[in-house]
Amino acid sequence: MNKLVIKLGTSTLTQGTKQLSRRYMLEIARQIVDLREQGKQIVLVTSGAVAAGRELLGHPTVERYWPSKQMFASVGQGHLMQIWADLFGLFNVHVGQLLLTRGDFSNRGRYLNIRDTLQCLLKHHVLPVINENDTVATKDIRVGDNDNLAALVANIIAADRLILLTDQKGLYTADPRQNPDAKLIPFVKHIDESILDLAGGSSHSLGLGTGGMMTKIQAAHLASQSGTSTTIASSASSNVLLEIAEGKSVGTLFLAETTARESRKRWLLSEKHQGTINIDAGAEHKLRYGGASLLAVGIVRASSSFERGAIVQLVSAIGKPIAVGMANYGSREIEKLIGSHSKHIEDILGYSYGPEIIHRDNMTRIKFREATQNDNS
Hints:
The protein is an alpha/beta fold and 377 residues long. The protein contains 15 helices and 13 strands. Strands 3-4-2-1-5-7-8-6 form an eight-stranded mixed sheet, with helices on both faces.
């Protein structure tokens, strides 16, 4: 487990009170710093902006409608980030904030921008701290809970493990608050209706959180389908993050049902092509046998009009489809870059999204039969 997404809910951050628990947040920060010092890449998904806003405003009585929550989030988000910045600053760790909505994941251009930002933050050892952008989100573009937001983030960075901390030790055979004979389920191979039935509802009596066990199971299922295993565990367990990273049996482990590579391959092959890039023999050889990324120097032409983030088909010099991938540049940009060295991209365009036209992690080789089936669809 070298790449982890850790999600903390409001009830975890407040530890059952109406205030953010700085003592608990410091303990989480310490464990995350320890994991980073072990060489692990960490992304933190944190709730708590609304609770922080209520705290700052003295818990006023307001109308129970969406703008009130957005007001609290607006007031509290900066306060929440300042607390995290101060706590991680004690360990000389810098944090970077990302506020996201579902629309950021469904738009390919914004999806790539999120991915590139996260990769750059991790590369430069800055801790990404993510929350849903409640201040501008509407019903149509909200993720709705940070459990599923964390699963989307795990997918975008191909995380090895998603960790969801909660007020329960994991998934039980029955509600442990009502049934003393309920037993903890140590691991789940496949999430089906029987598992969903065990999830029950939310346990948040203070009205501060939006998630419950059901949203965590949904998030685990989403992560599982994209190649990430998920652990649901109690936030009250001492050194819980360190123990999970060590591979100890903590909470409930939901196994991934595929690998991240296989999931990405299936997605790329299932998407309808939006354009074609013709490559020369040298680029074809490197793609086929060297597992290389596609660079501008190996491109002959770009057919059709497509935007950055489009799924395109790569065609050899003799017109044979050999791969599909997600383009880092649009067709108009690629036309300007054809045959150029990667170091000249910024000089030509005035900006750069990186040296690769298509990165090898976002590309998969195809058989002719697969290409034909995709075109016919």
